[in-house]
Amino acid sequence: MNKIFIYGIVIFIINLNELYAQSYDLTSVDEFFKVAGILKEGKEISNVQWDNFDNSACYRNYSKRQDKFVINTIKNSIIIVFGSSHNSELDSILSITEKDMERDIKLLFKKELLMNYLSVKSNYDSIKSFRENYDFNNLVEKSKQRLGSFLGQPLDSSIILNPVYFLFITADGKNNEEAIYVDFNLIYKKTEQQRIDFIAHEMFHNYRAYFRNYDFIHSSDLNRALDMIQDEGIADLIDKKIGYNNYFIENGELTELGEIFVKLYSQAPTDLERFQSVILDYSKDKITETKMIDEIIEIVKFGGHPIGFYMANKIVSAGYQEQMLITFYNPYEFFRLYNKAAKEQNGFQLSDEFMNYLNEITKEYYR
Hints:
Blueprint: H1 3-21, E1 24-25, H2 27-40, H3 47-54, H4 59-63, H5 69-82, H6 87-94, H7 98-103, H8 105-122, H9 124-133, H10 136-151, E2 164-167, E3 173-175, E4 180-183, H11 184-189, H12 192-208, H13 214-219, H14 221-239, H15 244-250, H16 256-266, H17 268-283, H18 289-299, H19 305-317, H20 321-326, H21 331-345, H22 352-362
Parallel strand pairs: 1-2, 2-4
Antiparallel strand pairs: 3-4
Helix pairs in contact: 2-3, 5-8, 10-12, 12-14, 14-19, 14-21, 15-16, 16-19, 17-18, 17-19, 19-21, 21-22
């Protein structure tokens, strides 16, 4: 056989192995188990061990930040949960109320993180066994197929989706530039279909990023908010079609965070009306841009999830899902389809004045 041909096959196999090796990463999960295991034995964590933890694929993203709040909270929570003699700190964080969390996102993070680590502790051996025996490559591939099925067409083969990085953090996931970050305990607790749907949700953000108009998004904070509402609203249809209440219950229990999401979803029509009013006031120079953005931050909570999901559900129930997915990168079309659905279903309708303004600020970016 031709030596060049053989060499080519070898290189192909090596590249194929690298491709599969990069489809997911568990180094942060492994470092978490090492640290937790040492603490469970009543020992202290050495600086070298913490350095290894900090430099693992996921936790590195937080340890390198100038603001150390996240990584310090992660480490402190591990020590509280898996160490000993930290009952007062544990009780203090567990006493954080729903009102506290609505007021201060850092308190929300602290409590949700601690609750998740307590869950990990309760199922420690089973989660370790899951890490050793589960087929994560298969999960990633099935999630890609699920995304293509949701969109109604095969994924563009020229687009390379991010690898999936697993870690122990709050029970959620996030698509970042370099990878999709997913809480390992969340995946452990889900059924197989729920796992696939959840990863597909994050892959939607990753895939849509290739179609977004960044000139539009970066031109103003308002534009960024409009894009977020569409982005999260459509993505929630993949894994939360059963509704927030049932979704959070299926995840184990309806936590304070779940209750906040349910409440925000129920008040979405009122929030949409407030959203419209603030933007129109700004368009008429009644308020400054800074004032408008401050108001929008108070209205569009959690990255646009609840308000966007409400709008997406209205669009789907009116029979416009296919049209919504054809223009899944265009915020104006999302709002237009929502308004069309709302008019047919006697829901809250955005005014012609608002829609005209929205068209004016988007039309040069989306043809």
